[in-house]
Amino acid sequence: MKFKKKDKEEKEKRKKEGKKKDIRNCLDIIPIREYDDSLETFKLENGRYMDIRKIIPRDLGNMSEDEKQIERMNLNKAFKTVEIDMKFVSMNFPLNTNKQKSVLLEYREKARDEVRIKWIDRQIRELELCDSNINTRNFYLFFFADNEKEFIKNKELLEKYTAAGTVRLTTEITKNEKIQIVTKFNNMNTTIDLMDEAMKKDDKYIVERKENEDILDENLFTVIQPKGGITFKEPSYITAGDGYIRCLHIYELPNTINFYWIAKLFSVPSSICVFDVSSKDMNEVKKNINRSITEEYSRGAHAKDYMDLYDAEKRRRELQDLYDDLTRMGEVIKLCDFRIFVKAKTREELEERCSEIFKNLEAEGYRTTTLLNEQKTEFCSLYESYREAHKKPFMMRGLNLTSEQLGNGFPFNYSELLDPEASLLGFSNAGGAVLFDEFTKTAKRKHYNAIVCGDMGSGKSTHLKKRLKHHASIGNFIRVFDVSGEFTPLVQEFGGKVIKCNGLDGILNPLEILRSGEDEFTSYSNHLAKLKSFFKCIIPSMADDLMQELANQLRELYGIFDLLPDNGNIITGKEPSEYPTLSDFRVYLAKALAIVNDMDKVSKTGVEKSLNVGKAKYINDILRAVDMLINNYGNMFDGYTAIVDITNEKIVSFDISDIKDLGEVFTAQMQNIVSLCWDNAISNGTVMKKRWESGTVRSEDITKFIILIDESHRWVNTSMPLILDMIIRYMREARKYFAGIILASQSIRDFMPEASDKDLEKIRILFEHSQYKFMFKQDSAAKEHIRKIFGNGMTYSQIESIPFLEAGETVLSIAGDRSIAFKEWLSKDYEEQLFSGGR
């Protein structure tokens, strides 16, 4: 036993020694020593600092010329005003959807039926195709400092000129993402998810070094160092443990550089593109220009032929123009290095890629080379500022460019959406994938409601069906309001129930108290509010006094049935037969009216008589409304709830095609059914909430609840403010129960047919509680309404583009986060036929 213990100790010792040896071998090429949590930045050797900010990309293809010009001008301004050395980095690698696929595979393991498995497999296959055909692109800004004071100053400067205002260029990122970025630098051929956890929180192991050496966080260095080592023995490429790398150096630019010229370099696939920039001493620049102009004068004066004279005059004019820009326009000269780090698993693949890049760039006028025996120097430049890198011997001279030329080269053009538990929804106009999940929770995305607007044939119905398909396949609860029956085939595909709402499939008793809050008092209050709205639909002219009388009479009725939430009384979840029906209410109202009439007969004063007459009128108005409902629509409203219990039914479609033209009765029934859905949502959400708060489930283990309401404008609009209040309340509380409500309509204008300022405010609140707004093609008249409601949520050009969108194209605005234009993807093999009935 002693020998075994000794062997184990020796093995651990050798492992630690090997780890230390690997670290020693990499210390001279990776200057990172630790992460300073107080400054939130990397500390390098010799007390220097390096920090990383994320650049927020733009979708230039969906911006107006004015918006593009503003972006170029803002970048130009940043180059003029920020004099510190900066490093701009573009990471271009194949899309990695391992996280999304792993979540879908977990759902697959839980699935009990072949249909769900079939659809999950299809979604996984879609993600695999994205991985094979889509490149993702991330942009970052690095900056450096020699000491803590300089670091704080540089950070404040960058925040002032790149991260202030409504149109920010950069934003802060987490420690985790910074670590993953530098890990990718050192392991370019390894698939790394920048959002994955790089290190456990506070996982530090500080090693004290010798007196004149820097301290070292061994755990951090172990994470970021090249896995398998790295060597620079070959003159033209780098050999790493995970593959091969070659640095291509751009040493000459085209004679004429156009707008967005840097984008050509920043979009090279399977590479890391780096652009270093430093400021030149302007006094020295002016002296050099002055000397050059004098030389060109002399050259022209001594020219022997017209060609020499012409060239000298042309060059002199260019120098004069540049001098004018420097003196009058505040132009500055920047020193720049452009490098492209190309990676590949094999040498043959590396040669092929580099050859293709050389050919493509040369065709555009870029001159590129590989610096032989300098690949180590090129690699080390990833962690160095321009000035630091150019202190070394044999460094190639930088390119001289004006801030305007750099600003006009604006390269940050890309858009994508990669939710971690999502499926494929479409592709952005910039070539990025849109992987969308309503239930993604971030610092900016806090709830799960959505509004979808689009004309007939715009793709709105297809979008709704794709969301239904996704949530059905992964086992979430779904409630669909189907106006035309077009959702029936999809619901039946997943074995869901279709319920006719005209009473043929059973009555839904409007007087049954459904669960709508966290306690019985809340449920009772919400139930009374629902019934006020219900009768307001039946009696549109109902005034506040009559509504108050209705509440009083209902309280008396529920008191008779022992259904008041007093003294801990449970009033929800009872048997349907324990609740009163409309017939019971009619009997009660008739008796109440008789009592008031009897009181009127014995009233002694005019005041008493007047009060009794008023009360009798109110009760009679309510009684007439109840009579009308029983006599004309008793099969829908009068009786105990006979619809089969759907609390545990995953997918239910309410077919409202037969009642959609019944006006106020339709609105009343819709409100009734939504209340039932909300009861189901709370039943599921309460269980999930307890599990989540106790820490017994992960996000992907939570069963969510989605309510999908097509043609919602028919009853959710400003003409019915009480129903608006109810829907807004549900939308506000839905996130607590892991529920989301999707409201769909043909136009944003449909929500506000005739609206006062007060009612318009309710529509604004409705949209505020909708985290996601999908705008498909709509009439030009809708643009003004969109501007009023969205504010800065969409750009001017995005709103202007809405009337011209093609089928399937949409603009998604995510409140507080971003907006993205993309085209939804529809499989011709297995979605198009099943989704027939609308696009």
Automatic annotation (TrEMBL):
Regions annotated as coiled coil: none
SUPFAM superfamilies noted in UniProt: P-loop containing nucleoside triphosphate hydrolases
Compositional bias ranges of the Basic and acidic residues kind: 1-12
Signal peptide: none
Gene3D superfamilies, per database record: P-loop containing nucleotide triphosphate hydrolases (3.40.50.300)
Highest taxon, organism lineage: Bacteria
InterPro entries xref list: P-loop_NTPase, T4SS_component
Ranges where the record places region Disordered: 1-20
Protein name, UniProt field: AAA-like domain protein
Organism in which the protein naturally occurs: Mogibacterium timidum ATCC 33093
